[in-house]
Specification:
It is a single chain. This protein has about 500 residues and is of the alpha/beta class. The protein has 16 helices and 27 strands. Helix 5 (about 115-120) links the parallel strand 5 (about 105-110) and strand 6 (about 135). The longest helix has 17 residues, at about 35-50. The chain is globular and about 65 Å long. It starts with 5 loop residues before the first helix and ends with a helix.
Length: about 500
Amino acid sequence: MRDNVGLILTKRAFLSPDMEGFVDVESERRFTFAEWNLRSNRTANALRELGVGKGDRVALLLMNSVEYMETFFAIAKIGAVCVPLNWRLTPEELSFIIRDAGAGTLIFGDEFQAQVLDLIARGGGENGTNVTRWVHVGPDEQRPDGCLSYLDATTAASDAEPEIAAADSDLLYIMYTSGTTGLPKGAVHTHASALWASLTIMATTDFRYGDRFLVSLPLFHVGALTPATCNVHAGCTSVVMRSFDPVRVWQLVSDEKIDIMLKVPAMLNFMLQVYDPERCRHERLRWCMSGAAPVPVSLIEAYEKLGIEVHQVYGLTETCGPACMISPEDAIRKAGSTGKAFFHTSVRLVDNDGNDCAPGEAGEVLVAGRHLMKEYWNRPEATAESLVDGWLYTGDGAVMDEDGFVYIQDRLKDMIISGGENVYPAELEEVIGRHPKVLEVGVIGRESEKWGESPVAIVVRSDESLEGEEVLEFCQDKLARFKQPVAVHFIDQLPRNPSGKILKRLLREQFN
């Protein structure tokens, strides 16, 4: 049998039909693996009847829900390609991604009507999309004119297993990351890379058959989509929150008897702030994976006192998640390290000439494994730059000690991590640079107690009348909220090196 991610759900439904597979917390709906698989089959057959075929891109603008995951597996079964959309983006940002991916179908939740109506109004021009099928998930009476009903289409469709139309190296999904050149890039994953990511995680971490995993990161992130896939593979129940709420997390940990979960450090901080030992029962909670930003040792120690292990992880969209992981004991003993390479994963550090670094010598992190992305969608130059001889050049600087523990030192591409979201300064700089009163701009990250980091814009004015508030307002409808700068500082001239590159280090020293 060839590898198809959709068949993971089919096989799990066969092996564990009566086990609870999915809990949709918001709607209070519960599904066994058998029920979940039948829903996915109906969605797959409905998409086929709408004309979606192998290789066609289907964009998802949905909050976390059973509809999200049943559609993901349905798309996989029929050989189409899923394009998860970050629902925090503006219509302008969404239109670029949908257009770039060439998605002809958009499945959207009722809460995103305003954004979708904006997208529809743009038409098919250079600022619009090529979407011809707009599928609405929500009450029929609220469905916008010209849009199809997800409920009607899936209810009328057969629940028989569809013909499997893709496998192995065929495309599974395109997940967009903020671009270092100012435009998002789509990391292309295949059925094989997604399956190997799942195998890699299960071989490295303590997933157990029958575990209950709390999903509260958005499913448009690899940090939620890969574990949710892994849950089906391993025979674990996915308890899925529509969105993160720290008080609700503790309630669910107790009420749903949660065994494992994944949270970014900012989430763990928020959870500590609302922790009440009298109400927060977590006897079954064994461990929590945490990544997307460095996890402070103090945070690991705080959770250790509660009897909860925090397993720090380092990963990327381009690796389908896995790269390095560290146990809580090692995280304290090896303070500041993100751990060793996952099983089925290799990690190297190289210098500027591509030579392997000696222990303690700084270099760029390279990752290899069968879970790496296939390419950047329609970006052959970026692909050739990032994927060389089977190794992913991450752009992250680090050192490795003699025991193989990796210590991330710097983000060579100046990426800012705000609340677990990747924010690339180049994208903000491109937007702010459009302002008629801005001569040039550099964006840096500033430490934030709440979000870890927040963007700050350093601006050289072409018109002295420009005020910081004007710059902030200019960004509001052009950038997602998490990308918007929290402050603007003005400077007469940006510091640059002899080749013209902005010296972000000097800006951070001056304005942080």
